[in-house]
Design goal:
The structure is a homodimer. Helix content of chain A is about 30%, strand content about 20%. Chain A is α+β, with helices and mostly antiparallel strands and about 500 residues long. In chain A, strands 15-12-14-13-17-18-16 form a seven-stranded antiparallel beta sheet, with helices on both faces. Chain A has a five-stranded antiparallel beta sheet with strand order 5-6-10-8-9. Chains A, B: One of its GO terms (molecular function) is FAD binding.
Chain lengths: ~500, ~500
């Protein structure tokens, strides 16, 4: 394990209003003793100094840090069930943790919650090449799932920039959207079955469900996107898609977001069934990424917006023809200022590297405030402009010692989803107050969602009313209380 | 309204073990008086003789018939809310009813439940051509939704043989799969938002949700496929797909089901992103349909199985090329015995008419027993063979007076979903006992689902344990009790 030094401020210090729930037991030596009675040596990490467990306590954005002294890394569902039963009986709070790549502080403790890592649940269980049904442990790393399926002529129906670290179970728990949502759709449609350990240690599973199953309420749906608040996902069955024989990409420079929208309609119309991604990045995103990568960007000129369009299909010649015709007519009609089609797979990968590096690039200055929102397409970029203006008006953006390096917007046009990254040198209360609730109020005004795909976690708990009605919130609280009456699973977060 | 004569036996007589729940109030003149206080003349149908309301009391298969004397057909969500509140306060049982095309007795009363028809909730609410978001009242007929979207260069992501009668809300309530599931996937993925009236009259809605929304538990999912047991869906928002510019179909004759499977793998591989349906029909299905349609079948020879493959895409020439290459190589390698590509849209429609007429054809002899199951592809047709053998062994199939005309199997290969239709001259207890629990036990043995897409309803209540575990059943009952504590919504059914 790579040594990770703690750099994030303790969440408990940064958010002093959030108090530890005194009804939770503080884990003791006896508790550890109990866990040792059925866990192997490599299934427990313990330290009297939570800083030594920084890679588990601290989030990827370096924004949140918990103080857990105990990480459990069980290797089987039965062990997880045993852990949960004990924790529930003893009111020990638990944070389930996948690859810990989440962006809303959902996967790290706030205080001394026990970290339940799925890392050691990393086996692929089954694959049926006829139906495309893929079953695996929740802790299988996304990259490994992709590789396995590619070797079996299929693909995992979701991909993410964090694929080298994020886990299948985590992706399902957070209902991640990812880069090919426009083609393969929501996990609510592609997940076929789940195996879940409930807070009381019971195991509920329909992991052997077939493609279609209408025998009653679709219980698994509740756990998709529940961020481990009502159960721990331990196994996933998902519909893999046929592996495309041809992949292609174009990188395009455009001067206004209005044109980005026009281009999207054109792509839906002309690329249709081979369209598998339509991503946009604003100039700031690419500037950060050029600085981070230290390489020249593939396009010659500088533009207000960049679009990456991917096609994938079963016939390279047909796909090329469609994409070339699309690109030529977009250039001829001067809809776009500059465009380049990947000449081979290397260049295709290069284009994607630029897109996938944006979040890491933005996070390389010290930290970042990150917002992830859905809006109607016509309003999509306006939130980025509004935030940049607000930060500029407050003289927050610029060279050091100003706190903000850059405020940028990028995301998935096909899904009406923008990511707003405010790259900062350091986090300050003043900055956070400038951003929140401003961002949420703006989104509420435009009837958007304050979390398109990143979820709620610690960050957006208490803000859901900007996107959800009172009755919806009541229903959600009711679900949480019903399935986790002691509130031990991932506390201080979500609803 | 067309006059429908009652022909089905009363459910209460056919299933004497099912008793009316005495805690439900019998609707009285005062209740009707109350409903009249806020409903218009055309929003109430009342008769002292339930036979006059046969088209609402009796199901499409003529297998179930209730005895309701009261049909409410409100025109607004608020009126539905008012109705539900009153019924809940007064313990009046209610059956929500869409197009009444369901196949498990879910949409008709068993005793004197009030029928809440969504017929008058028939307005399209909104359509956004950029994102493809389509919003409508629950009672919009599927055909009308299709037509509206086609005119707007999109398509509804689901189609059914019953499209002329079934309603959007009913389709969502029953989580229908339909003919293009292999392409557009599950409603759990395509439904974006729902407006639902709860048993107590509260309205819960996220109908304005955008394509992606990760702000808490995805509550709407519970209502998809809940068959109106925990709420009445009154509005639906769904992701429409871009309208394909090219549609094509081939009709194929094949001699064994093993070859059907091989052909499916070949189609997934070669037609991939343009494949939009892969349907199979056995010889018996087509024989029934030839008799019903009174027309010659488009293929020259008789075969054990028939397959209808549809492609849809954005480029006719590309699609044709793919499909022609697919068909030629399948013929050349003698994988298939006979195959015909639709020469134009008329022939394309003709091919589909054959497929879509199978259920009606099977239902034209008097009635039918209908089973709808998921199995692994290798086992898919075996259930049909097992049932036919069982009926033959009992000398049940043949000319009158034998009860069974034919037992046939057809369905969606792409989804591992077979429909088993046992066309009968009349329903008998002896026949039902021969079929059940035999069919369910067979499916349980093969680890399939006893309801792939038709749902549970009255027919499969009490049989769910063949496909679901004890804990799942407990969870389901718990959900029902939690959201409908008085049990007034669609009683005697589901869990």
């Amino acid at each position: 394990m790579t040594k990770v030094l703690p750099v994030a401020q303790l969440t408990a210090e940064a958010y002093p209003k959030v108090k530890r729930n005194p009804s939770f037991k503080v884990p003791t030596k006896d508790d550890v003793q109990y866990f040792r009675s059925f866990l192997d040596f490599d299934e427990i990490l313990e330290s009297s100094n939570s800083e030594e467990l920084a890679s588990f306590n601290q989030d990827w954005m370096k924004k949140y840090r918990g103080q857990s002294n105990l990480v459990l890394l069980p290797k089987s569902t039965d062990k997880i069930a045993k852990i949960m039963k004990y924790c529930n009986d003893n009111k020990l709070a638990v944070v389930p943790q996948g690859g810990n790549t989440d962006l809303v502080g959902a996967s790290v403790p706030v205080f001394d919650e026990i970290i339940l890592s799925l890392k050691n649940m990393n086996k692929i269980r089954d694959f049926d090449p006829v139906s495309g049904t893929f079953k695996c442990d929740a802790g299988v790393v996304m990259r490994d799932a992709h590789q396995f399926l590619r070797e079996n002529n299929h693909i995992f129906p979701l991909d993410l920039p964090s694929r080298n670290n994020c886990q299948v179970g985590g992706v399902v728990s957070t209902n991640a959207g990812g880069l090919n949502f426009v083609r393969y759709g929501s996990l609510h449609g592609t997940v076929l079955g789940l195996e879940v350990v409930l807070p009381n240690g019971e195991i509920i599973s329909n992991i052997n469900a077939l493609r279609k199953d209408n025998t009653g309420y679709d219980l698994k749906q509740l756990f998709i996107g529940a961020e481990g608040t009502i159960g721990v996902i331990t196994g996933v069955s998902i519909q893999a898609a046929a592996r495309p024989k041809a992949l292609n990409a174009v990188l395009i420079g455009i001067d206004s977001f209005e044109t980005v929208q026009k281009l999207f309609i054109k792509a839906k119309n002309e690329l249709s069934e081979v369209l598998s991604a339509f991503e946009f990045m604003d100039r700031g995103s690419i500037e950060c990424t050029i600085e981070y990568m230290g390489k020249p960007f593939p396009l010659v000129n500088s533009h207000g917006f960049y679009v990456l369009i991917e096609t994938s299909g079963s016939n390279k010649r047909h796909d090329d023809e469609k994409l070339e015709a699309f690109l030529s007519s977009a250039l001829e009609t001067k809809l776009i200022a500059e465009g380049k089609m990947a000449k081979d797979l290397d260049e295709y990968n290069l284009f994607w590297t630029w897109r996938k590096s944006v979040p890491t690039a933005c996070n390389s200055y010290g930290g970042m405030y990150k917002y992830d929102m859905s809006l109607q397409l016509k309003d999509l970029y306006s939130v980025s402009e509004a935030v940049t203006k607000r930060l500029n008006d407050a003289s927050m953006i610029g060279d050091a010692p100003k706190p903000v390096v850059k405020s940028v917007g990028y995301g998935h046009v096909g899904d009406g989803n923008i990511h707003l990254n405010i790259a900062v040198r350091h986090f300050t209360k003043e900055l956070e107050d400038l951003l929140e609730p401003f961002v949420y109020e703006y989104i509420a005004l435009k009837k958007g969602s304050i979390s398109a795909e990143h979820g709620v976690g610690f960050h957006k708990k208490g803000h859901l009313h900007y996107s959800r009605s009172e009755i919806e919130l009541r229903f959600m609280k009711d679900i949480k209380n019903h399935y986790d009456p002691n509130g031990i699973l991932n506390p201080y977060k979500y609803v």
